[in-house]
Amino acid sequence: MKLKAIFLLSLTGLLTANSVSAGILAAKTRLLFEEGQRERSLMLANVNDYPVILQTWVDQGQGSPDHAEIPFITLPPVSKMAARGLQSLRVVYNGQILPKDRESVYWLNLYEIPAIPQPDQQDAYISLAMNTQLKIFYRPKSLKKFELSDIAKQLNFSVQVEQDHWKLICDNPTAYHASMVNIQLSYQKQMIETNAETDMMSYPKSQRQYQFNGTLPKADQYQLNFSLIDDFGNQHDFEKNISFLQP
């Protein structure tokens, strides 16, 4: 799940992103459309003590509703949710032709605006809007059923160093998105991690690079630990021995 904070600030008062949490919570962290499915429902909860205006849309990760050619629509696109209220959101596939040889991914946006009357006086105040993003996967019928361990086995990793910057090269030859978290590289008793990113996915039939936050002694082999997220949002841990790649 990807979380973005959008601040509408007056001249006085500051908020940091660390002090912010989403007020709209979804029952799932991702939605899966198998080919032939036209609609999915998602239960939403407003955990705020105040009502919010909720705008929903699907995009390719831009975080803006101003994008056409998207194969999914949300119903209702705009609604008002009562404090501590529940609402069912429908996500509908419009039948647009999508690739048959791999998964496609889009992002569901839940943009909440506090529906709180603003003071009449000119006092400084802060109004905060939040956009929470969830992944939508479209999976063609032509793709075989798989175990997450099969995806992990097929991912090819190597370590490369350029000007003392360590990075992990991931080749994903599969037709599936590999949603990775907790990537760690170790040698003997030393360990480094990849820098945090909002989207850690390795896309189908493509290569992805991850930057490490430190260095290790150069060696022929390293131990790589990582987790993959399944269709239900659960994490599964994997381990591989990988080689050092000369630039």
From TrEMBL:
<dbReference type="InterPro" id="IPR016147">
    <property type="entry name" value="Pili_assmbl_chaperone_N"/>
</dbReference>
<feature type="domain" description="Pili assembly chaperone N-terminal">
    <location>
        <begin position="25"/>
        <end position="143"/>
    </location>
</feature>
<feature type="signal peptide">
    <location>
        <begin position="1"/>
        <end position="22"/>
    </location>
</feature>
<dbReference type="InterPro" id="IPR018046">
    <property type="entry name" value="Pili_assmbl_chaperone_CS"/>
</dbReference>
<keyword id="KW-0143">Chaperone</keyword>
<keyword id="KW-0732">Signal</keyword>
<dbReference type="InterPro" id="IPR001829">
    <property type="entry name" value="Pili_assmbl_chaperone_bac"/>
</dbReference>
<dbReference type="Pfam" id="PF02753">
    <property type="entry name" value="PapD_C"/>
</dbReference>
<dbReference type="Pfam" id="PF00345">
    <property type="entry name" value="PapD_N"/>
</dbReference>
<dbReference type="InterPro" id="IPR016148">
    <property type="entry name" value="Pili_assmbl_chaperone_C"/>
</dbReference>
<comment type="similarity">
    <text>Belongs to the periplasmic pilus chaperone family.</text>
</comment>
<feature type="domain" description="Pili assembly chaperone C-terminal">
    <location>
        <begin position="171"/>
        <end position="236"/>
    </location>
</feature>
<keyword id="KW-0574">Periplasm</keyword>
<dbReference type="GO" id="GO:0030288">
    <property type="term" value="C:outer membrane-bounded periplasmic space"/>
</dbReference>
<protein>
    <recommendedName>
        <fullName>Pili assembly chaperone N-terminal domain-containing protein</fullName>
    </recommendedName>
</protein>
<dbReference type="InterPro" id="IPR013783">
    <property type="entry name" value="Ig-like_fold"/>
</dbReference>
<dbReference type="GO" id="GO:0071555">
    <property type="term" value="P:cell wall organization"/>
</dbReference>
<dbReference type="InterPro" id="IPR036316">
    <property type="entry name" value="Pili_assmbl_chap_C_dom_sf"/>
</dbReference>
<dbReference type="InterPro" id="IPR050643">
    <property type="entry name" value="Periplasmic_pilus_chap"/>
</dbReference>
<dbReference type="InterPro" id="IPR008962">
    <property type="entry name" value="PapD-like_sf"/>
</dbReference>
